[in-house]
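Reproducibility note. Readers wishing to regenerate the assembly model reported in the main text can use the exact inputs given here. Chain order matters: entities are listed in the order in which they were concatenated for prediction.
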Amino acid sequence: MQDEKQFLQDYSLSDYERPSVTADIVAFKLRRRDSENYRQNVQTRLSLLLIRRGGHPFKGCWALPGGFLNPGETIEQCALRELEEETAVKPASLMSIGLFSEPNRDPRGWIISNAFVSVFGSEEVAQRSGDDASDAQWFDVDFTLEPDGGYVLSLRHEDTCIRALLSEEKSRFGMTSFTVRDSGTLAFDHAKIIAAALTALRGCAKDFEMIFDFLPEKFTLSELQNVQETIMNISVLTANFRRKVANLVEETGEYTQGAGHRPAKLYRRR
Amino acid sequence: MQDEKQFLQDYSLSDYERPSVTADIVAFKLRRRDSENYRQNVQTRLSLLLIRRGGHPFKGCWALPGGFLNPGETIEQCALRELEEETAVKPASLMSIGLFSEPNRDPRGWIISNAFVSVFGSEEVAQRSGDDASDAQWFDVDFTLEPDGGYVLSLRHEDTCIRALLSEEKSRFGMTSFTVRDSGTLAFDHAKIIAAALTALRGCAKDFEMIFDFLPEKFTLSELQNVQETIMNISVLTANFRRKVANLVEETGEYTQGAGHRPAKLYRRR
DNA sequence: CAAATAGTGTCTCTAAGACAATATCAC
DNA sequence: GTGATATTGTCTTAGAGACACTATTTG
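Running the prediction on these inputs yields the following structure tokens for the assembly.
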């Protein structure tokens, strides 16, 4: 035992070269679309948070929020800390989607990144500007398979439109990874990370995982259905949706009011 | 542009403290059990590869194969390289199960690890001994939920029996993580990693992912069924199993011979 | 024939999908 | 009543699970 104490005292990790480690977060939120009819329910779009880089490299490009792992914290704590520096709010959920470790993914040097999907509820999210970020904005997401087999990732915020092209690479186990053919004005390999995040998010939403995190504690079944439809970019039949989620929710006894049509029961997650 | 070149030339990552990064691999294989009856099909057990540590820390304990990430390689390449140093054979598959980054998981210092599940076919796997490993052996796996809600992980090889106790921690998204209550003679947090690996492996096997990697190119449906049953520690009805995998395989036209009973069609993966 | 595995047929039950019908509010 | 959403009912079909049955080889 004395032996081991001595060993650890003498042990030095400094002989080996070490990478810098970061956490990058793909933060999702549903953005309300203005409705043309005041009696209609709110329409939503899926959006994600990007930060305009103020310094080199990729100066002026848009990048995912994230930052370096500090001693004494886990990678999840790092992700939450970096995210809170940008949004001032804790996300409703956080899910790892893997380590991105291509040696040349960052021109600054050997930097590998663990990426996360995070979800924010629909309450307004405050924004701060970070130290090396001149701007942070939520971009509407469009990620679709083209007839030629390629994927197009479009991110829009007001006049700004980012467009990236990717190819799918099926590597066993249902896990799909993407290759970037054109990164547009996205920094680093963030197009690849966003594509992986969207794939993971849609996979979860299919099984009703994570969809509750987009909503407040109490919600109507229509709102819940809207979340799934928005994320997966599909539309499902109401009757079937309600049957499938019946066991995942419970009634609160409360109802919506003054919506211009029949009130709806408010549910909560069970 | 000149501006950016200059920036990158001046940029130094050395101001920040950096962790060492490793890849640890939970390598699975099916081990043939001696059958009491020469006419019966071979019975199998799930086994995983452990290495006895020859040096400090955890001297004499058993640990997962793995090693440090080198510059110029991805974490997947690192995992394959370390695994090949131990087994001299490439695995049939490799799947990441996440980054383990608890600050004090390694007494040597700040070392974080990306864990992988890998699968080897049933052909014999050669073994080399690594530099800091005095022994490498395949341990039969038993991982079961006890009535008290805890999990027991038992690993056996001849006279050696490792026994670890864990608790389940459901952290949203169906992703379950484990807390180690008693590590037994397993080094570091490897009991936690093995529990996560088994959970991931069973999740895959349920959907017929990864089960083909345990078998040679040509196999019978009985063998395939046996793989799933062994991994998940369940038994399923033959007729139902065959219906479910029917679209995942195709006939080769060949048959087994001389097994002491009716020959079986050999299939391959489609 | 006995022992063992290989392979098929079919019944039931559940869940998913499609579609129709009714209910309730604001105006 | 009209326009909008809320909520329920039910028909059909696909798939999972259970179980019974037949087929083929070695010894």
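We highlight two features of this model. Chain A has a mean pLDDT of 91. Residues 37, 39-41, 220-222, 238-239, 242, 259-265 of chain A lie near DNA strand D (CB under 10 Å from a C1').
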